[in-house]
Write a structure and sequence with these properties.
MetI-like fold, 213 residues, 83% helix
Length: 213
């Protein structure tokens, strides 16, 4: 099999455009998944058995339904626009895992801090956002890094909705040139560069937060 790497250069605009779309989708998915994950974790950590069971039920349901089923349901059944269905599905899917990370981080913080804050008259939302969250940012960076990289990898499923992200572009190059292995090789390197960039940014953030605390 002849490797014609000039194809990668010829289709560089398509590959870079696909990478840009992957970056945009992944960034929004990370934000959405993190916000939802924090909300679910805060509900699960609230006083009362009902809230804990509600959060656990959400996590179990979300984690046991494949991502592709979520986005297909949002797109074909509920009729959302392709990009909206993909972003909502990606955010919901990853929030089930991120909420677990946040919950584990909360459990690692001594309960005495929460009790002391309550004695001083702070409400639970105030305790969560001003006492617990700053410490969570430092504790949960390593596991959150893995989850954010998962978002980047899972974004490739959006190709099934016709969203022109990186994997979708490689398929188009395969159809046009029958040299999909070239595009796939370049796409692999681009995905790797994105994952390493996220890892580097999170490590830098963790270092900064540790110095600030």
């Amino acid at each position: 099999m002849e490797f014609d790497w000039s194809i990668a250069w010829r289709y560089r605009d398509a590959l870079l455009g696909g990478m840009l779309m992957t970056v945009q989708v992944s960034a929004l998915g990370i934000i959405g998944g993190t916000v939802l994950g924090i909300v679910v974790a805060s509900i699960g950590s609230a006083p009362g058995l009902f809230f804990r069971r509600l959060a656990n039920s959400y996590i179990e349901i979300v984690r046991n339904i494949p991502l592709i089923v979520k986005i297909f349901y949002l797109y074909y059944v509920l009729g959302f626009d392709a990009i909206i269905a993909g972003l909502i599905g990606l955010s919901i899917h990853q929030s089930g895992y991120i909420s677990d990370v946040i919950t584990s981080g909360l459990r690692s913080i001594p309960r005495e801090q929460t009790e002391s804050a309550r004695v001083l008259g702070h409400s639970y939302p105030q305790i969560f956002f001003y006492v617990l969250i700053p410490q969570l940012l430092r504790i949960t960076v390593p596991p959150l890094t893995s989850q954010y990289i998962e978002v980047i990898k899972n974004s490739s499923i959006m190709m099934f909705l016709g969203i022109p992200e990186l994997t979708w572009q490689t398929q188009q190059i395969e159809f046009e040139t029958a040299r999909g292995y070239v595009a796939a090789g370049v796409a692999t390197l681009l995905y790797l560069s994105l994952a390493l960039s996220v890892s580097a940014l999170m490590s830098a953030a963790q270092w900064k937060w540790r110095r600030a605390i």
